[in-house]
Design a protein that fits this description.
CATH class of the largest domain in chain A: Mainly Alpha
Oligomer: homodimer
Helix content of chain A: 40-55%
Radius of gyration of chain A: 21 Å
Number of domains of chain A: 2
Strand content of chain A: 5-15%
Shape of chain A: globular
Chain lengths: 399, 399
């Protein structure tokens, strides 16, 4: 187990009707908030009206910025920074999914840090200053509601890059599973693939002796899988299934499941290129990339005995503990492959693509994506991947 | 799943050599600290000298209060409050196990709240004000390093009572598994029983649909059991086993494992009477009480069909998931009993008592303990227990 520091002060307010506390919570931080949302579904559902009512009742004023898109854009973030500064907002209040929350986080950092915001995404500098952030989560997926991370697309490239800072953690996040009943099945599935990927990125580590976090990762994955099946067999309005998924989505990415270990994160990087160039939903991209990343690892580990043992045993454990593959392990590779197959079958069963051919990706651009993904150097920690590896994984995903 | 709020801002600083950061961490909060410890083992090991060195290097002054005993006493807490006020301490720094940390928490509350401190323990009033607390944990057990709770013995009764407040959460806690190598086996075992009890108190709930927290509880218990076996078969200085136990001990009681559910806590109350009257170690008392509490539940649930189904299925699940009892459940009661037996066998294997006859308890005082334990009304949530129930459990523990 590695040395680590862990602190997560986000106040989670979870359950039925909890969004009505948004006014009183916001009032702890600010007299005026920047209310940030997509301007579409949360308006239609009446949620934004209820948020405004709650703010009004608590004596909190607001200024609104709408129009956040999936893969949120830097241009809108810059607009938000202008408004937050001009209107002297004391809190950025995000109502929506990961895109809205990530956009709010970037605004919160930009509002109190001069200079080029993109520097933080290119890791040229760092900061511990940001406006406080509040969230009402409407799509359980990104886990951004209590995470340190934030991913923004800079249209100039386009580049999709992350900014990981302690000050990105929201001050409070309100999670009401009822708000997720109306999410279209495709987006529910994208969210599930996203949160599973967050756990799997952490799970695939070379760090030995991380038993507790292994157990917590496996238990959270099993819970997601079981409850996803409930939702996708007629349980759209099953409060408890939605609640398990929603809480699991937050835990998947709040840093708790990777204390003492180093995660991989190559699949996220590989997906970022898909979504930067083709605007594919993050979860759908991960459902395609992750199994291909696993198959590639199984293939290339064979040239080294120690690598082979580490890779096969971890992948076989994943198969046994998460997917119930027979744990006798007479043949580690067989068990590992069966685990990957069950992961793909599960993604298919909830309507996710598992091959690039099921998406709008132009396969002729694979070499370009492979070149872009290693722009800052090799990616991944379980296995360091260069341009050639990245291209091979994209090609496996295309097969 | 019940609605819930969860916030835990304690900064965990975990790993080898981390105690040397105590000076710089303390300096964030105070120019002068009250350094609180037992005055025995942490002095002998040289830890206190290193702490002082680190404080000195960071320009932090200190005043010392030693002499904390197991089942920490209100009289010493009052002394600490006097000193903290007189010396204008800005942080209470606890170096030790749960007793020292609990004593520090009570001092931190008392230092900034006028009136009778015991009122908070008798739940006559509450507060959100306390001095910040820092800890260096030397015994993984109580989980007090990131919990909201604090248990103190008032010698006037004697009464042993808890005070649960958000402001009891330490600002930072330093956990170095190496510091636990030298704990005597009996105290290591007491700590393990204590952290297991913290999880089991949460696990035994009537709240349906708490799958994620069930999984997390079971995974944490399995990790504790496996690593305890490593430590007790020659692995006293096994860093990774000590690290798993230490991190599990913090997680067991930081509130994360009972989001959305109501725990039981009758066994803790029953043990408090043992330790108030006979000064028995908390973990040892719990090792005796918990199996008896389980057997009593199995016995009395039979009079009601619904109670019987709920009790048997939860106890059988505990047996299957935590202890590997065959999950076929042809006979739920048989499975449940086998789980209790394995829990007792485990406690025996690490040198814990499982019967009152193995302790210094005077059995003739059972009626008195039963009367005292329900002083504030019935105890427990999985099953409400009155004086008669409490007496029956003490008697089962004596058999």
């Amino acid at each position: 187990m590695k040395n680590f520091e862990y602190r997560n002060g986000t106040k989670i307010i979870f359950g039925r009707g909890m969004e009505n506390q948004v006014g009183s919570e916001s009032a702890r931080y600010a007299k005026k908030v920047l209310l940030h949302h997509s301007g579409s579904s949360s308006v239609r559902s009446g949620l934004i009206d209820r948020v405004k009512e709650s703010l009004k009742n608590a004596g909190v004023d607001w200024v609104e910025l709408t129009g956040v898109l999936p893969n949120p854009r830097l241009s809108l973030v810059k607009e938000g920074i202008e408004i937050a500064r001009k209107e002297n907002c004391g809190l950025i209040l995000a109502v929506g999914g990961g895109s809205v929350i990530d956009s709010a986080k970037a605004i919160a950092v930009g509002a109190v840090n001069d200079g080029d915001l993109w520097d933080f995404f290119e890791k040229k500098r760092t900061t511990d200053k940001a406006l406080p952030i509040g969230t009402i989560v409407t799509i359980p997926a990104a886990g951004s509601e209590s995470s340190t991370s934030c991913v923004i697309t800079n249209e100039d490239g386009p580049w999709k890059r992350g900014m990981t800072l302690q000050c990105n953690r929201p001050a409070f996040s309100i999670l009401n599973p009822e708000l997720t009943y109306s999410i279209p099945p495709y987006h529910t599935a994208c969210g599930i693939a996203d949160m599973m990927a967050h756990i799997m990125e952490r799970y695939f580590t070379r760090e030995p002796n991380v038993e507790l976090t292994d157990e917590l990762c496996e238990g959270t994955l099993r819970t997601i899988i079981r409850n996803a099946r409930k939702i996708f067999s007629g349980g759209e309005n099953n409060y408890d299934a939605r609640a398990e998924i929603m809480w699991a989505g937050a835990i998947a990415h709040n840093g708790f499941l990777d204390t003492g270990r180093t995660g991989d994160w190559a699949s996220h990087a590989l997906d970022h290129e898909l979504s930067a160039l083709f605007d594919i939903a993050h979860g759908a991209g991960l459902a395609v990339i992750f199994p291909a990343w696993m198959r590639y690892n199984l293939k290339v580990c064979k040239s080294c005995k120690e690598d082979s043992l580490q890779t096969l045993s971890r992948f076989a454990r994943f198969a046994a503990k998460v997917w119930g593959v027979d744990g006798a392990f007479y043949d580690l590779e067989q068990a590992a492959l069966e685990g990957i197959q069950r992961l793909e079958n599960f993604f298919c069963s909830i309507g996710m693509p598992v091959k690039l051919s099921q998406t709008n990706i132009d396969l002729t651009r694979i070499p370009e994506m492979a070149k872009r993904v290693v722009y800052f150097g090799p990616i991944g920690n379980f296995r360091k991947l260069d341009e050639k590896d990245a291209e091979a994984i994209y090609r496996l995903a295309a097969e």
